[in-house]
Amino acid sequence: MNVLKRQHGLFVTVCFVVGFIVGTGIFFLPGRILYEAGGNVTLGVAAWVIGGLMIAPCVYMFGVFAGRYEKMHGFVDYAEAIVGKKYGYLAGWFFAVMYQPAGYAIIAWITSGFTATLAGMVPGDEIYLPFRFFISAFFMAMAFVMNYLAPKIPVKFNIATTLARMIPLVLMGTVGVVIGLFASNGSSGAEINFVPALSATTQTYTGNANLFAAISATAFAFNGWQASLAFNTEVKDSKRNFPIALMLGFGLIIVIYVLYFIGVTTASPESATIMMQGGGANFAQGTREAFTHVFGRAGNALVFFMIISGLGILNACCLGMGRAMYALARRDTGPIPDRIGVLDPVTNVPNTSMVMAVGIGFLWLSVIFANTVGWFGALTFSLPDFYNFGFFGLLVPIFVVYAVKLKKWLPLLAAGGAGFMFTTYWLGSLRHAAVYAGLFIVLGGIGFCFNRFKQ
């Protein structure tokens, strides 16, 4: 009783990994990375490659862990088995409260922005932010209802939307690259620098490139593979299939993202100019302009792919986060484990865990709204950067302890990659990193209090 069934093969597992990674973020992050790189596409490509190479050893080591440790919710399994039960609980609490519910709210918020664009709204309209808040809440509620009442449909929906959201990436990563590299002016797209064209049109542009900020931004685009770890005990022959799915899915994503970035930033100088004005709305609008330039009127359909992509990753987030608090309860930790650790006898889904995760997700949605309107003042922070900051910070001790125990050097390479990504947040913005650290400590402390008084 209360044990999840093994029901997913290798193909579905790869779709889970790719589906968790490819979200709405890839449709606006190229603009942010180009902005952080000072308009230099070559530096932007370097940021993508460095970010991917820093995270790849972490993914590989988690593939190794998947072949050695298996209990419930991969990340918690590895932290618990390698470092200890208390650290495993902290890792599980991080996923249950900070990582997955926050990601759920972020994806809903981004998707609502694309929906507002489709409805003809622009930032600054009086109803723009209230509209986004309520549409985000609606999307979150619908994903929850589908996962709660018909858990077999979300798995199929994840596969379908994963394939659908790959279409614009592959198209721009091929056609866009050709147009950018072999433009009529004869210059190589990989060497294009848009600074001269921007100096007269962009007031916010300073001409300074921040490679560390660009690298840390790629973490959000590569983000998601760790969420797929929640399904390790639901994969057939998981000790073989899960590591393969992790490495295959992540390697495919690195190649696609680099090609897509080159295509979307070099196909149209006008779109790059919009991106360089800064801000999420301009990043998304610049991407849309690039697609329209390359594909004509058909490029306007990009906004539909953005929304489909958002709904697909939102569904995937709901699938994963419903297992997080359940994983703690199965270990007799966290709040009310006797109730949260129970599966629905009909659907085989941890309903109570899912309800709690969705509730926490709505709290994070409120934080996003407050951040956007400036209610936090000087303490305003980037929620995606916050949970990636916490994740990479948690990874370092796991890899170091594993390397010491087994006397192997490869885990130290993964520790270096995770440590490098963690450090980029401090180098990118010391003030924001300090806020992230304080918030993590406070929420982690609350988690241990809940565990102490779990009844």
Description of the molecule:
By secondary structure, this protein is an all-alpha fold. The chain has one domain (10-377): Amino acid/polyamine transporter I, CATH 1.20.1740. 73% of the residues lie in helices and 0% in strands. The protein has 19 helices and no strands. Helix 2 (29-36) packs across helix 12 (280-295) and helix 3 packs across helix 18 (410-428). It starts with 9 loop residues before the first helix and ends with a helix. The relative contact order is 0.19.
Q: How many strands?
A: 0
Distinct helical segment count: 19
Radius of gyration: 21 Å
What would you call the quaternary organization? single chain
- The CATH level-2 architecture is identified as Up-down Bundle
Helix share of residues?
A: over 70%
Mean pLDDT: 80
Which stretches are poorly predicted, pLDDT < 50 over at least 5 residues? 184-207
The helix/strand order is HHHHHHHHHHHHHHHHHHH
According to CATH, the fold-level topology is Amino acid/polyamine transporter I
Q: Regarding CATH, which class? A: Mainly Alpha
Biggest beta sheet attributes: none
Shape: globular
Strand content: under 5%
- Total individual domains: 1
> What is the terminal-to-terminal distance?
22 Å
By helix and strand content, what is the structural category? mainly alpha
CATH superfamily: Amino acid/polyamine transporter I
Task: Draw up the topology in text.
Blueprint: H1 10-21, H2 29-36, H3 41-68, H4 74-82, H5 85-118, H6 128-149, H7 152-181, H8 195-198, H9 211-222, H10 238-266, H11 269-275, H12 280-295, H13 302-321, H14 324-329, H15 337-340, H16 351-373, H17 383-406, H18 410-428, H19 430-452
